[in-house]
Protein: Family 43 glycosylhydrolase
Organism: Echinicola jeungdonensis
Amino acid sequence: MKKLNLIFASLILLLSTPIRAQEIVPQTYCNPLDIDYTYMVYNSARNISYRSGADPAVIEFRGEYYMFVTRSFGYWYSTDLVNWDFIKPEQWYFEGCNAPTAFNYKDSVVYFAGDPAGYGSILYTDDPKSGKWTPTPSISNNIQDSELFIDDDGKTYLYWGSSNVHPIRVKMLNKDDRFLETGVKKDLINLVEEEHGWERFGENNFHPTLKEGYMEGASMTKHNGKYYLQYAAPGTQFNVYGDGVYVSDSPLGPFTYMKNNPMSFKPGGFTNGAGHGITVKQTNGQYWHFATMALASNSHWERRLCMFPTYFDDEGLMYSNTHYGDYPRYAPNHPTKAGEHCGWMLLSYKGKTTVSSSKMQIKKSTSTDDEFEITEMPLEKSDDGEILSKVLTDESPKSFWVAEANNDQQWVEIEMLKPGQIYALQLNFHDHESGIYTRTEGLRHRFTIEVSEDGKSWKTVVDRSESYEDAPNAYIVLTQPVEGKYVRYNNVKVPGNNFALSEIRVFGKGFGKKPAKVKGLIVDRKEDRRDAFLSWKPVKGAQGYNIRWGIAPDKLYQSWLLYDTTEHFMRCLDRDTKYYFSIESFNENGISEKTEVIEVE
């Protein structure tokens, strides 16, 4: 009887104890996009081997999505805009497509162009998933950076241009007769650097000798009867590479400069740039802007892709949400917050990093004169004899570490400054003398990841030791978050001769308080009205600050994320526009309240 009473009491206790439900982790994505980027042929004669993805053309076709990328020798397919599978076509341009264009015509045929030689052989298919395409004869030339647009009435337009002198142009084609030119041809828009600061050439819109930016990457979006002609400036290798818009009532113009330009802009943070893209409408009506980010470590033309939600406001102004643009963001399937920052912060910033070996560690950045500033860092060890690395948690994709070998004896361990709840990781691998110069099948990234609270007892949270995934910017979300202060990457084998990384980023939620509201924001607009100097008081415990600005207090569409500074000089304003500014601080625990908006004449 006593035993029965004990069992009964235990059962009552069990039933009365609330069951802790497992947290449902939402689907997210993180820029740069996690796809199997192709190795480039640009600098193969100089033995410079690197992956790149640029100039995306993304279309929706019969409820699914296709993404075409410069010189990738094929294209990618997705059902959800997050997970992409590569399709190798049966026949394709010999050197791969260059600055491609694609158009879905009434869910019946996909048209495509992008010959790197500049000749206009347009391909078409009604089954892009099969990889089977039919070419038209070559009927046009000089169509670098082209955009094919077919209006609702079937009239067909080809926009093109890539120059620091010549404008974006348009010519009409006959879709029903091999896309022959009809004779209608017009100059449309050009850069006006003396009015638009963000169009000025160079890193941070400054170059000591070259003043003219490059206008390229035309793209057309029709929305509510208006034609939004998008264009990229000032150069793909720079942090300020962005997309602007001119608007018209006709695909032939005249076009008017959109007053809140640029519509896609990401000059700060880990990975910079958001230019030369395309805007695609999801099946639920949400727009997304796919664009090019500047990695520019092995080469200025080393690039990655990004995706941002895009909107049209009450004035019909087009804009993208790039705030915290390289932090995890809700996936397109989220019912109310698709593309918004999901609240996971950076836990790994400036964490103490030890490595198994070190062939070299390079600190690298793009200077204002279009060259690289390169520092080879001396070998540094801790008091315990551990090899240290300071480039793997510095929030710079250009800096990198190279191990002595590419085997299962190589590892990286990060001791974060503070413990946190870990939700996701991003591994940014670096190509160091990889010796690969084209699309190569069978590449794999194999590794495991462990987490520890004390640096002694470890738990494996990721096991890709036998993976067949090729993931140069692997973004990995844990099925359930785990508490930890230490993260250890254990290499098995990755592409290339040496295991090399540019950054390990750990995302989640810290256990402390988010920083206080910023005080003392001052915006000093200079005599050259395209320039402004900003300063503010430091906030205790802040990792960094996010400046927001725009053309109205409720239209702060632009942002610039900065680490470890309380001042900033920007050269990206439009000369004749009144602006409004606000700022917030952030750390591993969250984002502060925004400051009151400041009006700046």
Remarks:
- Residues 2-16 form the longest helix (15 residues).
- The longest strand covers residues 473-493.
- Confidence is low (pLDDT under 50) at residues 1-19.
- The chain is about 0% helix and 40% strand.
